[in-house]
């Protein structure tokens, strides 16, 4: 993996901007064809590949949502980046930490979203 | 894994308080005997077991350090929790996201620290 630390963080920001577009197909294009998604972590549901990922975002964007970073993203000495953010979707707020890994072309190979029941609040 | 979401976050806070004690043996006792540590992620160095972990913290605490949360920790629907924090060690600051997993007794089974070169600043 040759992507530098700063490029990893740029990729996180691009990812979150794309989430804010609420366009499922734009999300799918960020992922490698064999990418794996675990959202939320511990749910026991592992998504694999573009078809699963498209269905996931179609469902997620059925109600418009926005995401916003809470802190600067963190890089790594490898292919991973991590970032604390909030999701606002209707009257619901999620506090999440995401971890993305990327291939050498900058495509996402894995996405994991850490949040639990106590990170979900509804106004 | 029966540990609830809130218990996971409490365990993160206890872990960070123990880091602030700067006592290597106190850290070792938080980990299961076969625990794995990757700090930083992508370094290619995977620590396994109490002996590796003790040596890691003895080295880390050779210069006193303090840690402080940047955001509320995140739980999960499984055995994992994630948290954004800062490490201050002498004139150096690290911005890190940590991910811990726990066994049913509350012992740490894995610790991963996400930070890269651009997350390290020296005054």
Write the layout of secondary structure elements.
Two copies of one chain form a homodimer.
Chain A: H1 5-21, H2 24-28, E1 31-38, E2 47-48, H3 49-60, E3 65-69, E4 80-89, E5 92-102, E6 108-114, E7 120-122
Parallel strand pairs in A: 1-6
Antiparallel strand pairs in A: 1-2, 3-4, 4-5, 5-6, 5-7
Description:
2 copies of one chain form a homodimer. By secondary structure, chain A is an alpha+beta fold. The first copy, chain A, is 28% helix and 37% strand. Chain A has a single domain (4-122), classed as Nuclear Transport Factor 2, Chain: A (Roll), CATH 3.10.450.50. The interface between A and B is medium-sized, with 34 and 34 residues.
Describe the sheet with the most strands of chain A: 7 strands, mixed
The 3D shape of chain A can be described as globular
Work out the count of structural domains of chain A: 1
What is the N-to-C order of secondary-structure elements of chain A (H for helix, E for strand)? HHEEHEEEEE
Biggest interface between protein chains, with counts per chain?
A-B, 34 and 34 residues
Secondary-structure arrangement, i.e. CATH architecture of chain A: Roll
What percent strand of chain A?
Answer: 35-45%
Q: Mind telling me the C-alpha Rg of chain A? A: 14 Å
Number of strands of chain A: 7
Helix vs. strand class of chain A: alpha+beta
Stretches of chain A where pLDDT is under 50 for at least 5 consecutive residues are none
Would you kindly provide a brief summary of this structure?
The structure is a homodimer of 123-residue chains. Chain A has 123 residues and is α+β, with helices and mostly antiparallel strands.
């Amino acid at each position: 993996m040759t992507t530098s630390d700063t490029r990893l963080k740029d990729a996180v920001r691009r990812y979150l901007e794309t989430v804010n577009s609420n366009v499922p197909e734009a999300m799918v294009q960020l992922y490698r064809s064999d990418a794996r998604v675990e959202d939320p972590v511990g749910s026991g549901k592992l998504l694999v590949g573009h078809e699963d990922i498209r269905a996931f975002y179609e469902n997620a964007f059925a109600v418009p949502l926005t995401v916003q970073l809470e802190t600067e993203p963190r890089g790594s000495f490898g292919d991973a980046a991590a970032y604390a953010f909030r999701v606002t979707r209707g009257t619901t707020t999620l506090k999440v930490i995401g971890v993305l890994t990327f291939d050498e072309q900058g495509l996402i190979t894995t996405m994991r979203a850490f949040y639990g029941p106590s990170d979900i609040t509804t106004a």
